[in-house]
């Protein structure tokens, strides 16, 4: 029966073949009757259980946290940390592989990637699994096609042209390598070849280029894998190879192009934005920013780093667009602000526009009307979806003098509706990216002054956290097991991201914390004593889990053209290890929600 043990099931996929054989040799099998307690809360575990058949309920008191099925394992915490955190009970006749504790502990001590599954802190788990994904990402780079590395262009010159003419041709084309056409054959000449001919060999500038080029061209097809091109470069001691398509030379692949495939275009996009002389010139780099998200994700870059890179590039884009479109009246008296996830620096795949304009004083209405429509219209064209709540420069509510904005904020404070609270939350996340930042600072300080210490107002604001439920994986899985219908789907934004973001936002407003990113707010709140530093780390880790799973879902939704499902995660499609991390993250959110409920007495609503 041990032969049926699936070593590809996480976390066992991180074991070497020798370690797998060691584990298989030690496995036993346990049978459990319906209703039998397999492991009681607070008890130590003598084995790691891996479900073969049947199902196991994990309960915390009367709360069903999860229903574990085939290939799920339990309880790693009891095995390593001494006591089970939940009761594990057979929901039906159940068979489990039993991996003895001494064997598992021995594997943990020798294999850090395997050990990561057993860490108690969710942030450590996430970091360890991110390292594994990073390795997978590097492999995906080498398995990319040559065409994906965007080889340089093919520039030709006749073999009878002079060395001097070849140099000028390179300067005009911006290329350091040329194809040399000599009748039926094609050769290659590089800038280094020209330099050596003129300096070391002291050949006249009138020398025909055929005399200094070489015709032993090393080439790959555009559909070949990058690793094949890399092997050719290594074997032939070349920094570049020729690229063919349908038998014709179409460009050159250089080592720097492969590096660019690994690093993406992050270092190139800012220059393209800066060089833009019109709105139309910004369309291509705007597309590149979005393509960069998928490239970085494929390479295993951590989600918070992807968000940081994307936010920085988007802000550069917005600043340039402001410079191109804003008339002097707005440039001198205005402040362009980004809000929501863009303001927090947590945006990855584009979801909607959240931006506005604060003015020191009224400007000519014609100038403002033109700018509103031109700015929002340009972002529409770049692929930034309009905000469903109309939080855009185009909306006069979000582009007005600072005095009017402060009056609007005060009206929202006392309006006490969910919509008003959401608008306040979106604005509280604002950052200034162009123009006069002191205008935004004035409005934010006014809002904090209205809310700070006002428990009733803060409670109304905090109550927005109750807009969406945070489910347990167990309820969804139990429904599927018992009735065989329904969908095991979780909206990761509603269930996980929003409760953390808004709960932290409420505490930050209460404490007057100036930081905008959620992780920065959590760190500042922990330092101020709002909660224990350890819980702050767990909360940050949970947020990153949700962001990582949401990004995966977003990219899949974009590929399928089904963007309304950009935050939907199906637990049944996750690996056992991923479900374990998600379950931990949801547990942390529920604990945080209880903290917010107690602090602001949300039960009174």
From TrEMBL:
InterPro entries: CBS_dom, CBS_dom_sf, cNMP-bd_dom, cNMP-bd_dom_sf, Diverse_CBS-Domain, DUF294_put_nucleoTrafse_sb-bd, GlnD_Uridyltrans_N, RmlC-like_jellyroll. Pfam families: CBS, cNMP_binding, DUF294, DUF294_C. PROSITE patterns: CNMP_BINDING_3. The lineage of its organism: Bacteria, Pseudomonadati, Pseudomonadota, Alphaproteobacteria, Acetobacterales. Keywords: CBS domain. Residues 11-82 form the Cyclic nucleotide-binding domain. This is Nucleotidyltransferase substrate binding domain-containing protein. It comes from the Bacteria.
